[in-house]
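Example record for the data management plan.
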Amino acid sequence: MSYRKSNRLHNVCYDIRGPVFEAAQKIEAKGHKVLKLNIGNPAEFNLFAPDEIHVDVIQNLREADGYAPSHGLFSARKAIMQNLQLRHIDCDINRIWLGNGVSELISLITSALLNPGDEVLVPAPDYPLWTAAITLTGAVPIHYRCDESDNWQPDTTDVDSKISERTRAIVVINPNNPTGVCYSADCLRKLVDLAEQHQLVVLADEIYDKVVYPPHQHIPMASLVRRAPCLSFNGLSKSHRLAGFRSGWVTATGDLSEAGDLIEGINMLCSMRLCSNVPAQLAVQTALGGVQSIDQLVAEGGRLYQQRLAATEAFQALEGVELVTPQAAMYCFVRVCNELYDLPERDEDLVLAFLEEAHVLIVQGSAFNLQSNRYFRFVFLPSEDELIHAIHLFGEFLQRYRK
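Corresponding structural encoding:
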Protein backbone atom coordinates (compact mmCIF):
# COMPACT_ATOMS: atom_id res chain seq x y z
CA MET A 1 0.00 0.00 0.00
CA SER A 2 1.25 3.47 -0.88
CA TYR A 3 0.69 6.29 1.59
CA ARG A 4 0.32 9.48 -0.41
CA LYS A 5 0.12 13.09 0.62
CA SER A 6 -3.21 14.88 0.48
CA ASN A 7 -4.41 16.08 -2.91
CA ARG A 8 -4.72 19.52 -1.34
CA LEU A 9 -0.92 19.74 -1.40
CA HIS A 10 -0.74 19.48 -5.17
CA ASN A 11 0.67 22.73 -6.62
CA VAL A 12 1.63 23.92 -3.12
CA CYS A 13 5.28 24.84 -2.71
CA TYR A 14 7.53 26.79 -0.38
CA ASP A 15 10.90 26.62 -2.12
CA ILE A 16 12.63 29.00 0.29
CA ARG A 17 12.99 25.91 2.48
CA GLY A 18 12.74 23.45 -0.40
CA PRO A 19 15.19 21.22 -2.31
CA VAL A 20 18.01 23.79 -2.38
CA PHE A 21 17.81 24.23 1.38
CA GLU A 22 17.95 20.45 1.78
CA ALA A 23 21.07 20.37 -0.42
CA ALA A 24 22.67 22.98 1.85
CA GLN A 25 21.97 20.81 4.88
CA LYS A 26 23.76 17.89 3.21
CA ILE A 27 26.79 20.10 2.54
CA GLU A 28 26.82 21.17 6.19
CA ALA A 29 26.54 17.53 7.28
CA LYS A 30 29.87 16.95 5.51
CA GLY A 31 31.49 19.58 7.70
CA HIS A 32 31.37 22.60 5.38
CA LYS A 33 30.08 26.02 6.40
CA VAL A 34 27.26 27.42 4.26
CA LEU A 35 26.59 31.16 4.19
CA LYS A 36 22.79 31.29 4.39
CA LEU A 37 21.56 34.23 2.36
CA ASN A 38 18.18 32.57 1.79
CA ILE A 39 16.13 33.52 4.88
CA GLY A 40 15.70 36.81 6.78
CA ASN A 41 16.78 35.34 10.11
CA PRO A 42 18.47 38.17 12.06
CA ALA A 43 19.77 36.02 14.93
CA GLU A 44 21.75 33.90 12.45
CA PHE A 45 23.93 36.98 11.93
CA ASN A 46 24.17 38.20 15.55
CA LEU A 47 21.33 40.68 15.26
CA PHE A 48 19.66 39.98 18.58
CA ALA A 49 16.57 41.31 20.32
CA PRO A 50 16.94 44.02 22.98
CA ASP A 51 17.87 42.60 26.40
CA GLU A 52 14.91 44.45 27.93
CA ILE A 53 12.50 42.15 26.11
CA HIS A 54 14.20 38.99 27.36
CA VAL A 55 14.32 40.30 30.94
CA ASP A 56 10.62 41.20 30.98
CA VAL A 57 9.59 37.85 29.47
CA ILE A 58 11.66 35.97 32.07
CA GLN A 59 10.22 38.02 34.94
CA ASN A 60 6.68 37.26 33.82
CA LEU A 61 7.22 33.70 32.64
CA ARG A 62 5.18 32.16 35.46
CA GLU A 63 2.12 33.85 33.90
CA ALA A 64 2.66 31.72 30.80
CA ASP A 65 2.02 28.36 32.47
CA GLY A 66 -1.67 28.30 31.54
CA TYR A 67 -3.72 28.95 28.45
CA ALA A 68 -4.27 32.55 27.40
CA PRO A 69 -7.52 33.90 25.91
CA SER A 70 -7.96 32.74 22.31
CA HIS A 71 -7.62 36.32 21.05
CA GLY A 72 -4.38 36.77 23.00
CA LEU A 73 -3.26 38.42 26.23
CA PHE A 74 -5.07 41.67 27.02
CA SER A 75 -1.77 43.46 27.68
CA ALA A 76 -0.40 42.47 24.27
CA ARG A 77 -3.56 43.46 22.41
CA LYS A 78 -3.73 46.77 24.28
CA ALA A 79 -0.13 47.54 23.31
CA ILE A 80 -0.90 46.75 19.65
CA MET A 81 -4.02 48.94 19.77
CA GLN A 82 -2.09 51.85 21.29
CA ASN A 83 0.70 51.43 18.74
CA LEU A 84 -1.91 51.77 15.98
CA GLN A 85 -3.35 54.86 17.65
CA LEU A 86 0.07 56.52 17.40
CA ARG A 87 -0.32 56.14 13.64
CA HIS A 88 -3.88 57.55 13.77
CA ILE A 89 -5.50 54.15 13.18
CA ASP A 90 -8.53 53.16 15.26
CA CYS A 91 -8.91 49.47 16.05
CA ASP A 92 -11.26 47.71 18.48
CA ILE A 93 -9.21 45.65 20.93
CA ASN A 94 -11.56 42.73 20.22
CA ARG A 95 -10.54 42.88 16.55
CA ILE A 96 -6.91 42.01 17.34
CA TRP A 97 -5.76 38.38 17.30
CA LEU A 98 -2.37 37.07 18.40
CA GLY A 99 -0.80 34.15 16.57
CA ASN A 100 2.29 31.97 16.28
CA GLY A 101 3.89 34.36 13.84
CA VAL A 102 2.32 35.93 10.77
CA SER A 103 2.73 32.58 8.99
CA GLU A 104 0.12 30.86 11.17
CA LEU A 105 -2.23 33.82 10.88
CA ILE A 106 -2.04 33.84 7.09
CA SER A 107 -3.23 30.22 7.09
CA LEU A 108 -5.88 30.96 9.73
CA ILE A 109 -7.34 34.00 7.98
CA THR A 110 -7.39 32.43 4.52
CA SER A 111 -9.13 29.38 6.02
CA ALA A 112 -11.73 31.63 7.65
CA LEU A 113 -12.32 33.69 4.52
CA LEU A 114 -12.08 31.48 1.45
CA ASN A 115 -14.12 28.75 -0.22
CA PRO A 116 -13.00 26.44 -3.07
CA GLY A 117 -13.13 28.34 -6.34
CA ASP A 118 -12.74 31.79 -4.78
CA GLU A 119 -9.98 33.97 -6.23
CA VAL A 120 -7.44 36.11 -4.41
CA LEU A 121 -5.18 38.67 -6.06
CA VAL A 122 -1.54 38.13 -5.06
CA PRO A 123 1.52 40.11 -6.20
CA ALA A 124 4.16 38.59 -8.47
CA PRO A 125 6.76 38.27 -7.13
CA ASP A 126 5.16 37.36 -3.81
CA TYR A 127 6.04 35.95 -0.42
CA PRO A 128 5.20 32.35 -1.37
CA LEU A 129 3.34 31.44 1.81
CA TRP A 130 0.43 33.54 0.56
CA THR A 131 0.10 31.54 -2.65
CA ALA A 132 0.51 28.26 -0.75
CA ALA A 133 -2.05 29.09 1.96
CA ILE A 134 -4.63 30.25 -0.59
CA THR A 135 -4.12 27.10 -2.67
CA LEU A 136 -4.59 24.89 0.40
CA THR A 137 -8.08 26.30 0.94
CA GLY A 138 -9.10 25.29 -2.58
CA ALA A 139 -9.19 28.92 -3.67
CA VAL A 140 -7.18 30.20 -6.63
CA PRO A 141 -4.30 32.70 -6.33
CA ILE A 142 -4.34 35.13 -9.25
CA HIS A 143 -0.97 36.84 -9.57
CA TYR A 144 -0.90 40.51 -10.53
CA ARG A 145 2.15 42.16 -12.02
CA CYS A 146 4.60 44.30 -10.11
CA ASP A 147 6.57 46.49 -12.51
CA GLU A 148 10.36 46.35 -12.17
CA SER A 149 10.73 49.41 -14.40
CA ASP A 150 8.55 51.33 -11.91
CA ASN A 151 10.52 50.31 -8.80
CA TRP A 152 8.47 47.10 -8.49
CA GLN A 153 5.26 49.03 -7.75
CA PRO A 154 2.06 47.04 -8.39
CA ASP A 155 0.64 47.57 -11.87
CA THR A 156 -2.83 48.72 -10.87
CA THR A 157 -4.09 48.40 -14.46
CA ASP A 158 -3.15 44.74 -14.37
CA VAL A 159 -4.81 44.38 -10.96
CA ASP A 160 -8.03 45.86 -12.32
CA SER A 161 -7.99 43.53 -15.33
CA LYS A 162 -7.80 40.45 -13.10
CA ILE A 163 -10.74 41.20 -10.82
CA SER A 164 -13.67 38.87 -11.50
CA GLU A 165 -16.96 38.00 -9.84
CA ARG A 166 -15.06 35.28 -7.94
CA THR A 167 -12.45 37.65 -6.47
CA ARG A 168 -12.74 37.83 -2.68
CA ALA A 169 -9.57 39.59 -1.56
CA ILE A 170 -6.34 41.31 -2.56
CA VAL A 171 -2.98 40.70 -0.89
CA VAL A 172 -0.71 43.74 -0.53
CA ILE A 173 2.83 43.02 0.72
CA ASN A 174 4.28 46.38 1.73
CA PRO A 175 7.17 46.80 2.38
CA ASN A 176 7.64 44.07 -0.15
CA ASN A 177 9.40 40.77 0.19
CA PRO A 178 11.32 39.88 -1.98
CA THR A 179 11.88 43.21 -3.76
CA GLY A 180 12.51 45.39 -0.70
CA VAL A 181 10.34 48.22 -2.04
CA CYS A 182 7.97 50.57 -0.20
CA TYR A 183 4.83 51.32 -2.19
CA SER A 184 4.01 54.91 -3.03
CA ALA A 185 0.99 56.73 -1.62
CA ASP A 186 -0.45 57.06 -5.12
CA CYS A 187 -0.14 53.33 -5.81
CA LEU A 188 -1.68 52.40 -2.45
CA ARG A 189 -4.65 54.73 -2.99
CA LYS A 190 -5.32 53.16 -6.39
CA LEU A 191 -5.25 49.68 -4.83
CA VAL A 192 -7.62 50.86 -2.08
CA ASP A 193 -9.98 52.38 -4.65
CA LEU A 194 -10.13 49.06 -6.51
CA ALA A 195 -10.67 47.08 -3.32
CA GLU A 196 -13.45 49.38 -2.11
CA GLN A 197 -15.10 49.56 -5.53
CA HIS A 198 -15.30 45.75 -5.73
CA GLN A 199 -15.76 45.16 -1.97
CA LEU A 200 -12.62 43.07 -1.66
CA VAL A 201 -11.07 42.20 1.65
CA VAL A 202 -7.64 43.84 1.88
CA LEU A 203 -4.97 41.50 3.28
CA ALA A 204 -2.04 43.74 4.21
CA ASP A 205 1.24 41.96 5.02
CA GLU A 206 3.28 44.65 6.80
CA ILE A 207 5.83 42.64 8.78
CA TYR A 208 8.64 44.95 7.56
CA ASP A 209 6.87 48.24 8.32
CA LYS A 210 9.62 49.37 10.71
CA VAL A 211 12.55 48.11 8.62
CA VAL A 212 12.49 51.10 6.26
CA TYR A 213 15.54 53.11 5.19
CA PRO A 214 15.47 56.93 5.04
CA PRO A 215 14.15 58.89 3.30
CA HIS A 216 11.46 56.30 2.53
CA GLN A 217 8.35 55.90 4.68
CA HIS A 218 5.80 53.16 5.10
CA ILE A 219 2.10 53.97 4.77
CA PRO A 220 -0.15 51.43 6.54
CA MET A 221 -3.11 50.19 4.52
CA ALA A 222 -5.32 50.51 7.60
CA SER A 223 -4.83 54.28 7.42
CA LEU A 224 -6.32 54.34 3.90
CA VAL A 225 -9.05 51.65 3.75
CA ARG A 226 -12.44 53.02 4.85
CA ARG A 227 -15.15 51.24 2.84
CA ALA A 228 -13.94 47.64 2.92
CA PRO A 229 -12.53 45.26 5.55
CA CYS A 230 -8.77 45.53 6.05
CA LEU A 231 -6.86 42.73 7.79
CA SER A 232 -3.29 43.81 8.61
CA PHE A 233 -0.54 41.35 9.58
CA ASN A 234 2.47 42.24 11.71
CA GLY A 235 4.78 40.90 14.40
CA LEU A 236 8.14 40.99 16.17
CA SER A 237 10.16 38.64 13.95
CA LYS A 238 11.99 41.28 11.92
CA SER A 239 11.68 44.65 13.65
CA HIS A 240 12.66 43.22 17.04
CA ARG A 241 14.81 40.29 15.83
CA LEU A 242 12.55 37.74 17.53
CA ALA A 243 11.92 35.35 14.64
CA GLY A 244 12.10 32.29 16.89
CA PHE A 245 9.48 33.63 19.32
CA ARG A 246 6.79 33.33 16.61
CA SER A 247 5.02 36.41 17.92
CA GLY A 248 2.59 37.87 15.38
CA TRP A 249 -0.83 39.45 15.16
CA VAL A 250 -3.58 40.43 12.77
CA THR A 251 -5.89 43.44 13.16
CA ALA A 252 -9.25 44.09 11.52
CA THR A 253 -10.09 47.68 10.59
CA GLY A 254 -12.04 49.51 7.90
CA ASP A 255 -15.72 48.83 7.24
CA LEU A 256 -16.61 45.71 9.21
CA SER A 257 -20.37 46.25 9.14
CA GLU A 258 -20.86 43.24 6.82
CA ALA A 259 -17.99 41.19 8.24
CA GLY A 260 -19.63 39.75 11.34
CA ASP A 261 -19.71 36.22 9.93
CA LEU A 262 -16.05 36.41 8.91
CA ILE A 263 -15.06 37.63 12.38
CA GLU A 264 -17.05 34.77 13.91
CA GLY A 265 -15.06 32.39 11.71
CA ILE A 266 -11.75 33.91 12.82
CA ASN A 267 -12.82 33.62 16.46
CA MET A 268 -13.83 30.00 15.91
CA LEU A 269 -10.46 29.04 14.41
CA CYS A 270 -8.60 30.90 17.17
CA SER A 271 -10.61 28.98 19.76
CA MET A 272 -9.91 25.65 18.06
CA ARG A 273 -6.15 26.14 18.50
CA LEU A 274 -6.85 27.21 22.14
CA CYS A 275 -4.29 30.04 22.09
CA SER A 276 -0.99 31.06 20.56
CA ASN A 277 2.19 30.52 22.58
CA VAL A 278 1.99 32.68 25.68
CA PRO A 279 5.69 33.44 26.40
CA ALA A 280 5.93 35.14 23.00
CA GLN A 281 2.87 37.26 23.82
CA LEU A 282 4.64 38.49 26.96
CA ALA A 283 7.19 40.18 24.69
CA VAL A 284 4.70 42.37 22.85
CA GLN A 285 4.03 45.08 25.43
CA THR A 286 7.71 45.75 26.10
CA ALA A 287 8.64 45.53 22.43
CA LEU A 288 6.06 48.09 21.28
CA GLY A 289 6.59 50.49 24.19
CA GLY A 290 9.26 53.18 24.32
CA VAL A 291 12.09 53.71 21.82
CA GLN A 292 12.10 51.26 18.91
CA SER A 293 15.53 49.64 18.72
CA ILE A 294 15.22 49.04 14.97
CA ASP A 295 15.42 52.80 14.37
CA GLN A 296 19.18 52.92 15.01
CA LEU A 297 19.82 49.93 12.75
CA VAL A 298 18.01 51.41 9.73
CA ALA A 299 19.14 55.03 10.21
CA GLU A 300 21.96 56.40 8.07
CA GLY A 301 25.16 54.87 9.46
CA GLY A 302 23.27 52.04 11.19
CA ARG A 303 24.24 48.43 10.62
CA LEU A 304 21.37 47.45 8.32
CA TYR A 305 21.60 50.74 6.41
CA GLN A 306 25.31 50.20 5.76
CA GLN A 307 24.94 46.54 4.81
CA ARG A 308 22.20 47.43 2.34
CA LEU A 309 24.48 50.08 0.86
CA ALA A 310 27.45 47.70 0.65
CA ALA A 311 25.38 44.96 -1.00
CA THR A 312 23.78 47.34 -3.49
CA GLU A 313 27.15 48.81 -4.53
CA ALA A 314 28.70 45.35 -4.87
CA PHE A 315 25.90 44.18 -7.16
CA GLN A 316 26.05 47.37 -9.22
CA ALA A 317 29.74 46.65 -9.83
CA LEU A 318 28.92 43.30 -11.45
CA GLU A 319 28.58 43.43 -15.21
CA GLY A 320 25.16 42.36 -16.41
CA VAL A 321 23.53 42.29 -12.96
CA GLU A 322 20.83 44.83 -12.13
CA LEU A 323 18.62 45.57 -9.15
CA VAL A 324 16.20 48.14 -7.81
CA THR A 325 17.84 49.57 -4.69
CA PRO A 326 15.93 48.15 -1.70
CA GLN A 327 14.06 50.80 0.28
CA ALA A 328 13.04 48.48 3.12
CA ALA A 329 13.32 44.93 4.50
CA MET A 330 16.59 42.98 4.24
CA TYR A 331 16.82 41.63 0.69
CA CYS A 332 18.42 42.44 -2.65
CA PHE A 333 16.36 41.10 -5.54
CA VAL A 334 18.68 41.04 -8.55
CA ARG A 335 18.22 40.32 -12.24
CA VAL A 336 20.88 38.73 -14.44
CA CYS A 337 20.71 40.32 -17.89
CA ASN A 338 19.70 38.19 -20.84
CA GLU A 339 22.06 40.07 -23.16
CA LEU A 340 25.24 38.81 -21.47
CA TYR A 341 24.41 35.46 -19.88
CA ASP A 342 22.83 32.25 -21.12
CA LEU A 343 21.41 30.85 -17.88
CA PRO A 344 19.97 27.37 -17.22
CA GLU A 345 16.31 27.05 -18.10
CA ARG A 346 15.56 26.30 -14.43
CA ASP A 347 16.81 29.01 -12.08
CA GLU A 348 16.91 26.40 -9.30
CA ASP A 349 19.71 24.62 -11.19
CA LEU A 350 21.85 27.76 -11.12
CA VAL A 351 21.21 28.24 -7.39
CA LEU A 352 22.18 24.62 -6.71
CA ALA A 353 25.36 24.93 -8.77
CA PHE A 354 26.34 28.14 -6.96
CA LEU A 355 25.67 26.47 -3.62
CA GLU A 356 27.84 23.47 -4.48
CA GLU A 357 30.71 25.63 -5.77
CA ALA A 358 30.73 28.58 -3.36
CA HIS A 359 28.79 27.21 -0.35
CA VAL A 360 26.50 30.25 -0.50
CA LEU A 361 22.74 29.67 -0.30
CA ILE A 362 20.40 32.08 -2.11
CA VAL A 363 16.82 31.81 -3.42
CA GLN A 364 15.68 31.62 -7.04
CA GLY A 365 13.07 34.06 -8.33
CA SER A 366 10.65 31.29 -9.32
CA ALA A 367 10.25 30.51 -5.60
CA PHE A 368 8.37 33.82 -5.41
CA ASN A 369 5.99 32.85 -8.23
CA LEU A 370 7.84 34.94 -10.81
CA GLN A 371 7.88 33.29 -14.22
CA SER A 372 11.49 33.99 -15.16
CA ASN A 373 14.85 32.26 -14.72
CA ARG A 374 16.81 35.49 -14.19
CA TYR A 375 15.93 36.72 -10.69
CA PHE A 376 17.61 35.84 -7.40
CA ARG A 377 17.13 37.01 -3.81
CA PHE A 378 20.05 37.66 -1.47
CA VAL A 379 19.70 38.46 2.24
CA PHE A 380 22.00 41.33 3.24
CA LEU A 381 22.20 40.51 6.97
CA PRO A 382 25.83 39.27 7.17
CA SER A 383 28.77 41.59 7.86
CA GLU A 384 29.84 43.87 5.02
CA ASP A 385 32.99 41.80 4.36
CA GLU A 386 31.00 38.56 4.12
CA LEU A 387 28.42 40.19 1.87
CA ILE A 388 30.91 41.69 -0.54
CA HIS A 389 32.85 38.42 -0.73
CA ALA A 390 29.69 36.40 -1.44
CA ILE A 391 28.57 38.83 -4.14
CA HIS A 392 32.02 38.73 -5.77
CA LEU A 393 31.80 34.93 -5.77
CA PHE A 394 28.43 35.20 -7.51
CA GLY A 395 29.93 37.48 -10.15
CA GLU A 396 32.79 35.06 -10.79
CA PHE A 397 30.36 32.14 -10.89
CA LEU A 398 28.22 33.83 -13.54
CA GLN A 399 31.13 33.92 -15.96
CA ARG A 400 30.61 30.24 -16.79
CA TYR A 401 27.24 31.27 -18.34
CA ARG A 402 28.58 34.22 -20.31
CA LYS A 403 27.60 34.21 -23.96
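Summary line stored alongside the record: The chain has 13 helices and 14 strands.
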